[in-house]
């Protein structure tokens, strides 16, 4: 019985193998690759990607993509109406292989206000599908195309005004794997840059309408990864373990800006330039054009926080193009010995960001109305400004940045603490018995923001629960004059 089974398996294997061989020889042109069976495409929201295609045969792949217009957050407290493919910015990731025949169902949700369409750069045909997919709210359009060339491609809406549809978040990536699939890696992530143009300046709270003139001038208020300032930090940070190989599918939706994509502390082992077939090795920064993409692969060797940036660096530290890859595992002192990136690099960010350029600091039009709001807005400011030095739980960094948690210096004198934030602080101070002799630059934030952040600090981590009002801040400011 057993040997009979073995024999059958052997025969089957030989048979399969010969079929496979035959196929390879028979279909030289990609458009002739036959499709067998149907399959519904798995779609994922960023930073996740669908399962690799592996060795599967070419199929009729059914993609069902729903367009949703929905309000969301572009930065803490800043609302924006995004137009999306699949409910996320960037839109759902599509993963297919060469030879697939994609039957694309573009569904425009009945609650949407506008018609849309889709132009996939992976399509050979008029408008990349845009002409056949123009769809009104409450309708679905279906078109189909044969996937001819491997690569990482952008898709986007191409409905007039095209720039506005893209600016509102209508872009994403479609990956076409070669026959047999991409070489396996340990971690794969989907990251896409985009620039946003809002009526109010960066950080102005409330619902912000799109600003056409700024977009035309390419004066972006936000440049972000995955649709939001901080999408890839905190709980959203990407993760990997020492020794793992990481593949980033990085796209740039634009609409206006080209990305100088860089990961602080890593060298890219391999980059498929512009998402095509050319592979570059040992790359520091790779250019990702608006409407373009790249596959970036590297092995992580030592633990720490690696910072993803657009190396047009003001965009990273002032407009949001910053993400984190947190790597855990054993230190390897042969490769890197010293402090963690976290501790060395980030303090410079807010330092640069908050350098005084003007004495004019605008007060918010939407002040905090309650203690809860003060805490909420204060936490935002803390996360944008103070955290780099005083750390997430106010614990500080020994001998460099004093703690704000249970700080006797802080709790002893509220006016003195407000003064430090308003005007900066230098010279020797003693906090909880430890001496510090360093410099804190003046924090360029409004009086209301000082009140909120101080209230947050005083009501966190075991401090004395002082509530700081804008009036208190104003008094300290005037006394100093
Ligand atoms: Cu659109």
Automatic annotation (TrEMBL):
Its EC number is 1.7.2.1. Keywords: Copper, Heme, Iron, Metal-binding, Oxidoreductase, Repeat. Pfam families: Cu-oxidase_3, Cytochrom_C. Signal peptide: none annotated. SUPFAM superfamilies: Cupredoxins, Cytochrome c. Gene3D superfamilies: Cupredoxins - blue copper proteins, Cytochrome c-like domain. It catalyses: nitric oxide + Fe(III)-[cytochrome c] + H2O = Fe(II)-[cytochrome c] + nitrite + 2 H(+). The keyword Repeat applies. It comes from the Bacteria. One of its GO terms (molecular function) is electron transfer activity. Cu cation binds at residues 116, 121, 156-157, 165, 170, 311. Its cofactor is Cu(2+); Cu(+). It is an enzyme of class 1 (oxidoreductase). Residues 373-461 form the Cytochrome c domain. Homotrimer. Belongs to the multicopper oxidase family. This is Copper-containing nitrite reductase. It comes from Gelidibacter gilvus.
């Amino acid at each position: 019985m057993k040997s009979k089974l073995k024999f059958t398996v052997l025969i089957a294997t030989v048979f399969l193998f010969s079929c496979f061989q035959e196929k390879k020889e028979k279909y030289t042109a990609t458009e002739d690759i036959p499709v067998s069976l149907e399959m519904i495409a798995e779609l994922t929201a960023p930073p996740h990607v669908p399962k690799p295609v592996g060795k599967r045969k070419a199929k009729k792949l059914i993609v069902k993509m729903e367009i949703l217009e929905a309000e969301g957050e572009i930065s803490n407290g800043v609302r924006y109406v995004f137009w999306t493919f699949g409910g996320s910015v960037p839109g759902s990731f599509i993963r297919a292989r060469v030879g697939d025949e994609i039957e694309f169902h573009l569904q425009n949700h009945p609650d949407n206000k506008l018609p849309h369409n889709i132009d996939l750069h992976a399509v050979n045909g008029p408008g990349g599908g845009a002409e056949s997919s123009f769809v009104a709210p409450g309708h679905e359009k279906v078109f189909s195309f044969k996937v001819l060339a491997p690569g990482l491609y952008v898709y986007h809406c191409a409905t007039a005004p095209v720039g506005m549809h893209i600016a509102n978040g209508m872009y994403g990536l479609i990956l076409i794997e070669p026959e047999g699939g991409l070489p396996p890696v340990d971690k794969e992530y989907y990251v896409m840059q985009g620039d946003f143009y809002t009526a109010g300046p960066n950080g102005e709270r409330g619902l912000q309408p799109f600003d056409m003139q700024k977009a035309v001038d390419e004066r972006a208020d936000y440049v972000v990864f995955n649709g939001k300032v901080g999408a890839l930090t905190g709980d959203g940070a990407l993760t990997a373990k020492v020794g793992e190989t990481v593949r980033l599918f990085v796209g740039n939706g634009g609409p206006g800006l080209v990305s100088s994509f860089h990961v602080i502390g890593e060298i890219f082992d391999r980059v498929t330039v512009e998402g095509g077939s050319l592979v570059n090795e040992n790359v520091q920064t790779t250019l990702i054009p608006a409407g373009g993409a790249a596959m970036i692969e590297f092995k992580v060797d030592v633990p720490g926080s690696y910072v993803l940036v657009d190396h047009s660096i003001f965009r990273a530290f002032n407009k949001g193009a910053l993400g984190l890859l947190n790597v855990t595992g054993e230190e390897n002192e042969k490769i890197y010995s010293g402090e963690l990136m976290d501790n060395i690099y980030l303090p410079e960010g807010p330092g640069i960001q908050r350098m005084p350029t003007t004495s004019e600091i605008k007060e918010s039009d939407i002040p905090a109305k309650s203690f809860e709001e003060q805490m909420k807005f204060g936490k935002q400011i803390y996360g944008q400004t103070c955290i780099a030095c005083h750390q997430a739980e106010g614990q500080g960094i020994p001998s460099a940045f004093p703690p704000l948690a249970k700080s006797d210096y802080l709790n002893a004198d509220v006016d003195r603490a407000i003064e430090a934030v308003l005007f900066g602080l230098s010279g020797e101070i003693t906090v909880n018995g430890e001496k510090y002799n360093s410099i804190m630059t003046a924090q360029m934030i409004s009086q209301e923001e000082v009140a909120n952040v101080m209230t947050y600090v005083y009501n966190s981590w075991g401090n004395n629960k002082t509530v700081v009002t804008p009036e208190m801040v104003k008094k300290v400011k005037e006394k100093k004059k």
